[in-house]
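Pipeline run #58 for the internal structure catalog. This entry was flagged by the ingest filter as a single-chain record with no existing model, so it goes straight to prediction. Upstream metadata was stripped on purpose; only the residue string is passed forward. Reviewer on rotation: M.T. Logging verbosity set to normal.
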Amino acid sequence: MTQSTFQNCFVAGASRGVGFEVVKGLLNQGYTVTALIRTDDTQSHLEALGARVQIGDALDAQQITTALQCFDDAPFAVVTTIGGKGMTRDEPRSDYLGNRHLIDAVPPLSCERFLMVSSIGVRESAIALPAQVLDTLRPALLAKAKAEEHLMASELPFTIVRPGGLLNEPASGHGLLTADVRAAGSISRLDVADLVIQCLQSERAVNQVLSAIDRDRSRSDQTLEPWKL
């Protein structure tokens, strides 16, 4: 695994879940982390861990542009776990619009990696999920698909990680990355965060789209080829 040179990381969607665990993992490894959160509910907790905090709504393009000025011209990486509906029923899903604002605001010459946490079921990985599940998740999956496509069309060196069903359980250490779009299963948020950080540190993961599941919780009918970082 070839490690990147950046020591700064901007994590969007850092207030909870995978984003929060990515912040903790990066800080434990000595990175300088700026955490983007929409409200100040978890600001004190993140700051106590050692993160810098920016308050901003991903649906507001100007707020995102301002937040991303925190590193000046120093090289940095971006991790985004942004997703979900806006604060009101009529607002668009941040899965697409929030991520689009973030992608468009990142200065290409300073960004060493843009890693998006998406979902199994998006685009060609739709074959991994039953029709009923796809129908239930359709609005989110369509928005995430547009975000993926926008990122891949940008000038940014990207990695897309598509986890399966997310579990609030301790890390098992059995997280598996695969380029096989048939991969289906579940995985703890802690294990996803660990895989995200490994991808950030690997040059082999540049411009790759990878599914993430726990190898002991796979629902795939076939043997999956692991992606070697």
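catalog note: The mean pLDDT is 92.
catalog note: The CA atoms of residues 1 and 179 lie 17 Å apart.
status: ready for reviewer M.T.
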